[in-house]
Amino acid sequence: MRKLALILCFTMMIVLIFSITVPREAAVKSDQQVGASALDLGKEEIQPDKEEVIRVMNGLGDTLKQDVDDSYKLKHYATEQELISAFEAYTTPELARDFVDYYFRAEADGVYVIPTHTEPWFQEENEYDMINTSNHSVQIVQENENDMVGSYTLVVELILQNGWKIQDISYRD
After folding, report:
1. What are the residue ranges spanned by the domains of the chain?
2. What's the DSSP call for residue 79?
3. Can you give 136-165 as a three-state secondary structure string?
4. How buried is residue 97: exposed, middle or buried, by Cβ count under 10 Å (0-12/13-18/19+)?
5. CB 58 within 8 A of CB 124
6. Which of 12, 28, 122, 132 reaches 20 to 30 Å from 4, CA-CA?
7. Residues with Cβ < 8 Å from 140, sequence gap 6 or more?
8. What's the start-to-end Cα distance of the chain, in Å?
């Protein structure tokens, strides 16, 4: 029963992920956007390699799937800030805050997941397109299909900001 609740909770989280948007023109200091190695490349367009894309995409999914007790209290994060920091390994700070505000609630005794429905996510075994949107950002576009929702196109904006981070997530018809 508990596993079923966790599966349902994760599924609901993924659905809601795609309702969160971050402004595309978010102002970011240039020293945060581009690491030292990218500065050496100048205006050359750079892209994350396949392993980095998979690391970031799966990392976000794994961070959303939290171990909880019977009351949905997180087992591995005691504070909201700890959870935000965990998300920031894979997302921009703004998107990390959006995820935590939307999917979790902080109480005096800890952080709780808000059970919700989620959509399908990145399928690492499926091909995807990577489109440069600037010399320090790319768009990952993946068309997938599953039994629950049918066909869907996942569009994820990655930005080079102290490593590759997810800046925006959306679906496209």
Report:
1. 2-172
2. S
3. CEEEEEEEEEECCCEEEEEEEEEEECCCEE
4. middle
5. yes
6. 122
7. 53, 57, 122, 128, 129, 130, 154, 155, 156, 157, 158
8. 34
171 falls in which pLDDT band (50, 70, 90)?
Answer: confident
Copy the structure tokens of residue 80: 């909201």
104-107 and 164-172 strand pairing: unpaired
Q: Which residues does residue 75 pair with via DSSP β-bridges, in sequence order?
A: none
Q: 154-163 pLDDT, tens per residue?
A: 999 999 999 9
CA distance 164 to 67: 26
Tokens standing for residue 5: 């609740």
- Sheet with 150-160: list strands edge to edge: 129-134, 137-146, 150-160, 164-172
Q: Which of 89, 110, 90, 114 minimizes the C-alpha distance to 100?
A: 114
CATH of the structural domain 2-172, one choice from 3.40.1360, 3.10.450, 3.40.50, 1.10.10: 3.10.450
Query: How far is C-alpha 41 from the geometric centre of its chain's CA atoms?
Result: 27
Exposure string for 9-34, b = 16+ CB within 10 A, e = fewer: bbbbbbbbbbebebeeeeebeeeebb
pLDDT higher than 70, residue 35: no
